[in-house]
Amino acid sequence: MEKHDSTKTMPRGVANAYWFQGFNSTSYGIILGMPMLLYLKSLGASGIVLGIMVALLPLTSVLQIPSASFAEKIGYKILLVRGWAFRSIFILGIAIIALMPDKLMPQYRIALVLLMLTCFAVVRNISMCGYWPLITGIIPEELRGKFLSRDTMCMYIAFTVTMLFSSFWIGVFSSKYAFGSIFLYSYLTALAAVVFLRRIPDIQDTENRSNTTQSHPPWMKMLRYPPFAKYIAFTVAFSASIAAMQVVWVPFMRDSYHASGSLILGISAFSNLIAAIVSRMTGTTADRFGSRPLLGCASGLIIIWQGLLMAMASGAIPHRTPILFGIILFGAAGFAVTGVASTRLIMGIVPVMGRSHFFAISSVANSLTLGVMPIVWGLILDSIGGTAADGVSVGSVWTWDRYSITYAASLACMLIAQYFRRRLDEPKAISTEKFMHILFIQSPTRLVLRVMHLLRRFPHQL
């Protein structure tokens, strides 16, 4: 398992996928990220409106299931290019709405923006079902980790730059046209993404479409396919835990940590930067040892991150910014490795027959979890705040309040996800225990022996 052929090269034209990922992440990082939330908030949008905006994309992901058969009929790349080009029109519409004169009342602006975002999410999810089947057909199995590490790095770099640029632009140009101009920039980057998407190589023979396309795919048989069912169980449990972290993060930083908006944005940029660096280092390791051991290592980092945040929320760890940045290192590294390893794993376990349907089911299960669970966790957070507003002290250094309890519940959910992780199927992967032995014992030992050998030779070279 430790032998890995590093002489193989990526197929020609794959570099366009990295450029596509960079420009695409920049575009939807603006239109579906913090800049859009800040714009709607500036118009006086209520919490319900902001919640609808956040839930639009994951809830409309169910459209990927009926679209999977359509993708196999017309071809993955054709559907992708047409869908990405069409959805860009709605980004332009949002930019125009933001740049319109003050005569348009704020409530009408909010309604029009939500309409455009809904159309954007619908078109995006219809066309998205063709992306990973296309990439899986292009990239050889032994190079998928290498590709995904570069692809993920481009995504995180784009998020980092976009967040810093948006923060600067909106802060310096505080007029009503600041948001409109940044949405227009999102439209231009979306067009650039379409250009590079068209240059990505196509699959020469797309799985014998006439045979694989069925009017009624065997959904239940797909869900019962053992490797796939185990993967879905892990990702759903994992996403349910992460949804809690997303809900509690901003309230904890605002109310308990008393962090400013600039600090929160700075932490997000720092997290994305660390994730970009770590993801770039992950690919070759995944191709060499497999995805399962990397998921085990990443889960350990995320559990440490959750535990430290729980301790900080309880008061056991002081609220100091350098300590907080140190804690963020664990989470950022864990998420980067998880993203590369989990995507590589599903690329390897789904059969060629019905590949687009398997990817659609996986995406819908994950998206619905991320769309529904934040609402559940939010209700739990509010109910805890009502019953234990002042917290319950345990000893002199630990207080159970709404934040520490929610972090503890999220940690418990992550521990449950580890049960499903250990059941994942990947025949070519080594065990997590063996991987940790290589990572922490064999590799440092080899490094020390190499240094000692060089030191012994040094006097003779003089």
Describe the sheet with the most strands.
2 strands, antiparallel
CATH superfamily of the largest domain: MFS general substrate transporter like domains
At CATH level 2, the architecture of the largest domain is Up-down Bundle
Distance between the termini: 41 Å
Considering DSSP H and I runs of 4 or more, what fraction of the residues is helical? over 70%
- Given helix and strand content, the structural type is mainly alpha
> What's the Cα radius of gyration?
23 Å
Which percent band covers the strand fraction?
A: under 5%
Instruction: Write down the overall mean pLDDT.
Output: 84
Number of strands: 2
SS summary, helix count? 19
Strand arrangement, major sheet: 1-2
Number of structural units classed as domains: 2
Kindly identify the CATH topology of the largest domain.
Growth Hormone, Chain: A
